[in-house]
UniProtKB/TrEMBL annotation:
<feature type="active site" description="Proton acceptor">
    <location>
        <position position="71"/>
    </location>
</feature>
<dbReference type="GO" id="GO:0020037">
    <property type="term" value="F:heme binding"/>
</dbReference>
<feature type="binding site">
    <location>
        <position position="166"/>
    </location>
    <ligand>
        <name>substrate</name>
    </ligand>
</feature>
<dbReference type="GO" id="GO:0046872">
    <property type="term" value="F:metal ion binding"/>
</dbReference>
<feature type="disulfide bond">
    <location>
        <begin position="125"/>
        <end position="324"/>
    </location>
</feature>
<keyword id="KW-0408">Iron</keyword>
<keyword id="KW-0732">Signal</keyword>
<dbReference type="Pfam" id="PF00141">
    <property type="entry name" value="peroxidase"/>
</dbReference>
<feature type="site" description="Transition state stabilizer">
    <location>
        <position position="67"/>
    </location>
</feature>
<feature type="binding site" description="axial binding residue">
    <location>
        <position position="196"/>
    </location>
    <ligand>
        <name>heme b</name>
    </ligand>
</feature>
<dbReference type="InterPro" id="IPR019794">
    <property type="entry name" value="Peroxidases_AS"/>
</dbReference>
<dbReference type="InterPro" id="IPR002016">
    <property type="entry name" value="Haem_peroxidase"/>
</dbReference>
<feature type="binding site">
    <location>
        <position position="77"/>
    </location>
    <ligand>
        <name>Ca(2+) 1</name>
    </ligand>
</feature>
<dbReference type="GO" id="GO:0005576">
    <property type="term" value="C:extracellular region"/>
</dbReference>
<dbReference type="GO" id="GO:0140825">
    <property type="term" value="F:lactoperoxidase activity"/>
</dbReference>
<keyword id="KW-1015">Disulfide bond</keyword>
<keyword id="KW-0349">Heme</keyword>
């Protein structure tokens, strides 16, 4: 009798233990896989189909979409604030200087309108951006990852809050600080910087490295001098319109080339070069450069899930916007 009691007590304890672990696993900031399984079962399939239509026609859109998700998450958390338009009384993130080349809003809008037709008022703009980003990256040979969903949309977007973004001239101390402030690790920093394996940059984002690094008409000594010559041919002083490919060999393909470039001192921004200033980030750069990005795809998938959890609104917080550019 006593052993039976003891056994059932033990059993009960195990159940409580399992429930506790399940609770922890679910406590992913309130997000979970397949959040829309019951309320909008086709949400992810529809998102993928529409994203595919756009990316197959314009593969270069994957880069600004990925960057849009990054900006969304770093400013006020992944709450779709980057999608909101300015109003009479408020200048939104979109219209801050740091928006520079953000584009691809039409993809988000197309998905949103399809989902509003199918299941009105259910799927948030913040989730749509996270899903579209994942789909777009995977369509240009990048990794695929499961996106936990359940984000809700914020009601505010403030241009001045783009100061939370790391600047392209940031040194390693500043970069680590900006990422830590969002709950991201040094590994997340070096892994997510690998997003610069796709896309383009305006000359103005790195011009000082070419022409006036310390205010004496000099160049950044951490930049490969041969590459300086090449970049100076593309970018005249004061050029605000020319776009330069960040990974010139394959700027439309999501591969591990970024680390080869950075190791050769050909990263475009000081923030890219800064990854060689710290032992942990430097050893990651070298590892990927020497092994053709052996673990980059897997690491990127993990870090994107981490980034996608920054400051999310869940439960009853925020709202589900009807149109991604406006609060309800
Ligand atoms: C580590 C700190 C980072 C800094 C300082 C930084 C800075 C920049 C800058 C200045 C540009 C060029 C903007 C322009 O002149 O048009 C750029 C482009 C880009 N960034 Fe970053 N970034 C960082 C991290 C990230 C992260 C975490 C992601 C995504 C996970 C990302 C994705 C991109 C992409 C895809 C582009 C190309 C956009 C396009 O082709 O339109 N960046 N970044
Ligand atoms: C929101 O603003 C963008 C420009 O930033 C504009 O192109 C777009 O038409 C606006 N959206 C709506 C629905 O007014
Ligand atoms: C970005 O901001 C500039 C001015 O700060 C604005 O003219 C431009 O329309 C904005 N871009 C987008 C896509 O909203
Ligand atoms: C890094 O940048 C910060 C702020 O931009 C500056 O205060 C600091 O002195 C810099 N650190 C190094 C080691 O250059
Ligand atoms: C270089 O920087 C210095 C100091 O900021 C400034 O006085 C000078 O005008 C700049 N030169 C050019 C060519 O931009």
């Amino acid at each position: 009798m006593a052993t039976q009691k003891l056994a059932s007590l033990f059993f009960l304890q195990q159940i409580i233990h399992v429930l506790f672990i399940l609770h922890l696993a679910n406590a992913d900031h309130g997000l979970k896989l397949g959040f829309y399984q019951k309320t909008c079962p086709d949400a992810e399939a529809i998102t993928r189909k529409i994203t595919h239509q756009h990316i197959s026609r314009a593969p270069t859109l994957a880069a600004p979409l990925l960057r849009m998700h990054f900006h969304d998450c770093f400013i006020r958390g992944c709450d779709g604030s980057v999608l909101l338009n300015s109003t009479k009384n408020n200048q939104a993130e979109k219209d801050a200087f740091a928006n520079l080349s953000l584009r691809g809003y039409q993809v988000i809008d197309a998905v949103k309108s399809a989902l509003e037709n199918k299941c009105p008022g259910v799927v948030s703009c913040a989730d749509i951006l996270a899903l579209v980003t994942r789909d777009a990256v995977s369509m240009i040979k990048g990794p695929f990852w499961d996106v936990p969903t359940g984000r809700r949309d914020g009601r505010e977007s403030v241009a001045s809050e783009t100061r939370d973004l790391p600047p392209p001239f940031g040194n390693i101390t500043l970069l680590k600080q900006k990422f830590a402030a969002k709950g991201l690790s040094v590994k997340d920093l070096v892994v997510l910087s690998g997003a610069h394996t796709i896309g383009t940059s305006h000359c103005s984002s790195f011009e000082t490295r070419l022409y006036n690094f310390t205010g004496k008409g000099d160049t950044d000594p951490t930049l490969d001098p041969n590459y300086v010559v090449h970049l100076k041919r593309k970018c005249q002083p004061g050029d605000t319109t020319t776009l330069v490919k960040m990974d010139p060999g394959s700027f439309r393909t999501f591969d591990g080339d970024y680390y080869t470039l950075v190791a050769k001192r050909r990263g475009l921004f000081q923030s890219d070069a800064a990854l060689l200033e710290d032992t942990e980030t430097k050893s990651y750069v070298k590892l990927q450069a020497n092994t053709y990005g052996s673990t980059f795809a897997k690491d990127f998938a993990e870090s994107m899930v981490n980034m996608g959890k920054i400051g999310v609104l869940t439960g009853k917080a925020g709202e589900i916007r009807k149109h991604c550019a406006f609060v309800n």
